[in-house]
């Protein structure tokens, strides 16, 4: 498989190089040059397969020829062996029509582990026997950071610098990052929002000198390998609910548009998806874009679903590119200079075929947490609650199964869950003595010079 940039001016790369590179050199994002196609028979043949075998079948076309089937199987077995549930991403039925797809059984309790456990192993595999040293720079609103740090802490050949918005992640999220004291882990709390952190990360990639000198690499969903790994659970869940013989809808709590774009990829590969519900909190740029064509970023409003407090959704560019059928360089540059753009008619009409959207406020979110607890016996986290509220309001035909992606364990947001439901979720034993451990992080202003200066003092420059 070859990959090309959404902005049309970077070299095409194979899977190995796309994984190690992150952002394309023209500022765009890498996407496959063609979508692999799964026939109804191919999809039916996934019935009864384990998560690992499903992952191998779904991802193989994306990694060929850089990984063999056996190498991919070995990596998946190792990555998903760390999950606390035998099904890796189990489905839980909550009423006649609705299911939760629990994506939080990995080591750091959020859906990010599904992709990042694999990505950590891919880095190791692709770096083995080379003298390369990667400097991973990442931005997190709470969950990517801990999952990425868990995946690469202590690994040879990699340093990770993770930027989070100071005071805007939950205490569990912060401690999951800052109590990892491995020497290759560097946590930075920035004085700003997640959007500021993400913009700084992209600026570092766009600085050819800095990016080349420190061999930057990405763990955010700008890295294609992240999304590829997330496509798997759409297949796994849909097959269990009757695909390819019946279509399934998914409701996806959305911020950076990575998780729901993985659902779009599954649909492009042939999985019968009736609808993808893009569920946002009050930071609703994506809801405005999909319902009215207006992609304009305001300022971020902090909410009790902080991982989705995002106004500039990186992966939306991948969708716009696919719907436009070619480079979106001008459209994206326009957005970068004005923080606003209109979707073209082609993009709006294309998106409407598969997507619907909703923005859920604090009342809607709290009500969904209460409903799930009282009516379905499920304690869910605020992000999942936003997905569930949007699923329940989407007006989907009664014979379509609707799966809400349960993106985080409720214990990560135990104060918000307790406020809404009166139930205080227990932190699972597998994350251990989190509140006794020592924290280590530095606080910096959200400026390019401050962050790059900090990294330059600590990272390995190319010889
Ligand atoms: C718990 C949780 N839910 C939902 C999201 C949104 O996912 P995405 O950014 O892929 O849209 C995030 C952050 O990415 C998250 O951490
Ligand atoms: N919600 C995310 C934000 C970063 O998104 P990513 O999927 O691009 O890594 C987080 O928890 O950090």
Automatic annotation (TrEMBL):
The keyword Amino-acid biosynthesis applies. The modification N6-(pyridoxal phosphate)lysine is found at residue 112. Pathway: Amino-acid biosynthesis; L-threonine biosynthesis; L-threonine from L-aspartate: step 5/5. Keywords: Amino-acid biosynthesis, Lyase, Pyridoxal phosphate, Threonine biosynthesis. It comes from the Bacteria. GO terms for molecular function: pyridoxal phosphate binding; threonine synthase activity. It is an enzyme of class 4 (lyase). Belongs to the threonine synthase family. It catalyses: O-phospho-L-homoserine + H2O = L-threonine + phosphate. Residues 87-329 form the Tryptophan synthase beta chain-like PALP domain. InterPro entries: Ser/Thr_deHydtase_PyrdxlP-BS (IPR000634), Thr_synth_N (IPR029144), Thr_synth_N_sf (IPR037158), Thr_synthase-like (IPR004450), Threonine_Synthase (IPR051166), TrpB-like_PALP (IPR001926), TrpB-like_PALP_sf (IPR036052). Coiled coil: none annotated. NCBIfam families: thrC. This is Threonine synthase. Its EC number is 4.2.3.1. It comes from Sphingomonas pokkalii. Residues 2-80 form the Threonine synthase N-terminal domain. GO terms for biological process: threonine biosynthetic process. The keyword ATP-binding does not apply. Its cofactor is pyridoxal 5'-phosphate.
